[in-house]
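User: Sequence for Gfo/Idh/MocA family oxidoreductase below. Tokens please.
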Amino acid sequence: MTHPTGWGLIGASNVAREWIIDAIRAQPGGEVRAVLSSDVGRGAAFAQANDIACHTTSLQDLLSRPDIDAVYISTGNRLHFEQAIAAARAGKHVMCEKPLALSVEDASEMVRICNHAGVVLGTNHHLRNAATHMAIHGLIEDGRIGGLIAARVFHANFLAAALQGWRVNEQDGGVLLDSTIHDIDTLRFLFDENPVSAFAMTQSGRLARDGIADGIMAILRFPGDVLVQIHGGYTTPFSPGGIEIMGERGIIIGRDCMSQRPIGTVSVRDADGEREIALKHHNLYHRAFGLFTSAIHGDGRPAASGEDGVASLAIALALRESALTGREIGINVP
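Assistant: Structure tokens for Gfo/Idh/MocA family oxidoreductase:
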């Protein structure tokens, strides 16, 4: 049975234009019915370009519409908390960009209020929906490489000029909360555990200003004394994204797999050599919004829940504290 689902976009963003509108419309009954922008001209142009019937500058107007069942929030990070709370109190399900908020306390409150209101809260952590990472998770779960020892994540690229903006110019931006937080969520998904401590060093000045981080080297310690190294950045052209998971009997290698696009390969290297794992790629956002749509109609849960968003934020903020203090920081995920 097809359940019609009306969506409101809170934020006329690049990610909404490039990925999310298509993902919503790919769901049976999925319709984008309105977009909110603080700039009336931008909202009007966005609505016209993307065949959206209504645009508004008023959050109250958007949330009061009875034909909107769910909202997707992709505004500036500092706005997520109040907008998500307002949406939940209006009875709208919420898919929110990461980070959910700028503090663990606020993110946890978002989860609490959404639960109290009976609405579904999802965090748009897209990488756990990739065929590559789903395959890697299955290989780890099946014990293909034995007990885990260490891992490396490579997620440094060059941020296009059109995408720089707040990411490198505002205090709630920076590589850590915009990009590395995805690596954190992916590792939590792959290992089915939270890290216990964090250490990080950041760099700034190649693209960012005012000390905002545009590069990071980080280490997370997971249970079982598993160490993970993360390299993230906005200033590294031609760098392939990837991940290596090292176990007692072999290594899982994911190449070109830290991308929004459905690309990449997964191989296992052990005593018998290296063999590529067969994959069937799919659109990451189609899967994420498919699971979210099912969840709001009472079937299953989002790919990344509100609780997942709280956890990734808590770990990211521990890395930020480490970079500021030069100390290894213990992690307590709520």
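The domain at 127-284+314-330 is CATH 3.30.360.10 (Dihydrodipicolinate Reductase; domain 2).
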